[in-house]
Write a structure and sequence with these properties.
Length: 498
């Protein structure tokens, strides 16, 4: 019998867009917590909701393992958990009820539970870990298992119901700074062969996830940080390379996703990492996330040495006015320079784009689209501004929020506040921008390969056949965009000039 059953409430099956993309990763934050408890002598098991069809599989896992403690511990390294999607909150509520029906003590950890602990207590949760969870969880279980006599009120980073619809909450726990001392994630709990089959069947390779850091020190005013706040801690390059070597020898991944908010932020970190990877021959193609202002020649050389295949840049906008309003701390020129440096090194570049920020005009939108045309990245990701608790952006627009304050799933794209344009504008913009990008990408590929017709494959013919489809979709949606007039209210102008 497993004393502790870990789970998480992000079900890929409940997120139609990402289910179609089928790039699943196990819940890394959950695996860290499981390995941390196991190092303290606890018997742990894992329910992996990522590949589950429904909450009924959680019920089956509860019946199979018969745990005393059910711990719904979200993967705080996955941006999908940070988005606090309503469908996943509903899943968590159902999982709590199922666990309580089996007399489990239920413990929650995650962004949404940290921000909305009372909602989870109302559904039966016994405890919520506030912020980073491992040390708080260890101390809590030691008390519940009578290994420790410490009062609950002395456990930092903990909340529990007060019996009157409120809660008791202790002071926030300082974050773990010595990350090298943490055991590697409990990968043995994961059904690795199933992930391998899914990845290779869909994409022809198998990708695993890692992290080298926790947190982000930058102050983009739309970015929610309920777990680590403005704090930032990093593993050593030596420790990361040791894990990379272990994963490569044991599980043989074809690719790694470094899920850090910002990869290699500390000066010299990436350069040292690249050197160690090359010396120890542990290179695995990987993707990571970077800020444009951190992309320097020495950084690019380090990425190349380490085997970096692609970099996602948080570009957000091609308008400097909007970047400044976001307090992004980067410039449009830095985005262009980063694209050039990475491209010259043979590293693919993808851009995150965000539309709908207060003050954005149609001209700002067009500047972003023009930036995409000129840079022609290898991929783009598009979202609209999403106000989450704890951000300056949320405080600016909270008076405009209605009953719905979270997206249902990652494809929702709902404007939760009064944006520069109606909600439908952004959904059409999403389609138009993607259609134009696919059109231009296909045309460039065809033009590049025209000189080498003997090398043409079925993919080339498919790309050629798709050009009329993308062109028509782009033109139709551009025409629809042009039918919208910007709504400029006095309250909105006040936000712009804030």
């Amino acid at each position: 019998m497993s004393q502790i059953l870990f789970g998480q409430s992000y079900y890929l099956r409940f997120d139609p867009k990402l289910y179609a993309a089928m790039q699943p990763y196990p819940p890394l934050g959950t695996l860290y917590a499981a390995s941390y408890l196991r190092a303290r002598g606890y018997d742990v098991a894992l329910f992996d909701a990522m590949l589950a069809e429904s909450e009924q599989e959680w019920a089956a896992a509860l019946d199979r393992h018969r745990p005393q403690y059910a711990i719904i511990y979200e993967d705080n390294f996955n941006y999908l958990s940070k988005m606090c999607l309503l469908r996943m909150r509903e899943a968590a509520f159902k999982m709590i009820e199922m666990a309580k029906a089996r007399s489990c003590r239920v413990i929650l950890c995650g962004s949404d539970a940290t921000d909305h602990s009372l909602k989870y207590f109302a559904r039966g949760a016994d405890y919520v870990l506030i912020g980073e969870g491992e040390e708080t969880l260890g101390e809590l279980l030691d008390v519940l298992e009578r290994r420790s006599s410490k009062p609950l009120a002395e456990i930092l980073g903990l909340a529990w119901p007060d019996g009157n619809g409120g809660e008791h909450r202790t002071q926030r726990r300082p974050d773990i700074t010595q990350l090298d001392e943490l055991p590697f994630p409990a990968w043995d709990l994961v059904d690795i062969p199933r992930y391998q089959r899914l990845w290779r069947a869909r994409h022809g390779y198998y990708s695993m996830n890692m992290v080298t850091t926790r947190g982000c020190p930058y102050r983009c005013n739309w970015c929610a940080k309920p777990i680590w706040g403005q704090r930032y801690n990093s593993r050593s390059p030596e420790n990361v390379v040791a894990e990379l070597k272990w994963l490569k020898e044991r599980y043989r991944p074809d690719h790694i996703w470094f899920a850090d908010d910002i990869f290699g932020l500390r000066p010299g970190w990436i350069e040292r990492f690249g050197q160690l990877v090359r010396e120890q021959e542990t290179a695995v193609p990987f993707k990571c996330l970077l800020r444009a202002d951190l992309v320097k020649p020495s950084v690019v050389a380090g990425l190349k040495a380490a085997g970096c295949q692609s970099v996602w840049l948080g570009a957000e906008s091609g308008s400097q006015k909007i970047l400044d309003a976001m307090e992004k701390g980067t410039t449009v020129e830095q985005i262009y320079a980063a694209r050039r440096l990475l491209g010259e090194a043979g590293i693919q570049v993808a851009l995150f784009l965000q539309f709908g920020y207060p003050g954005e005009t149609r001209q700002d939108v067009e500047r972003t689209l023009q930036m995409v045309r000129e840079l022609m990245p290898d991929e783009i990701g598009i979202s609209v501004s999403y106000p989450l608790p704890g951000t300056k952006f949320y405080e600016r627009v909270k008076s405009q929020l209605g009953e719905k304050q979270n997206w249902q799933d990652s494809e929702d794209l709902a404007m939760l506040y009064r944006g520069p344009f109606p909600q439908e504008f952004y959904r059409i913009l999403y389609k138009a921008a993607h259609a134009e990008f696919r059109l231009r990408k296909a045309a460039l590929a065809i033009k590049r390969d025209l000189l080498h017709p003997l090398n043409w494959r079925l993919a080339h013919l498919r790309r050629l056949a798709a050009i009329p489809y993308h062109w028509l979709k782009w033109k139709l949606n551009r025409r629809r965009l042009d039918s919208f007039e910007q709504t400029e209210t006095l309250s909105y102008l006040a936000l712009e000039n804030h």
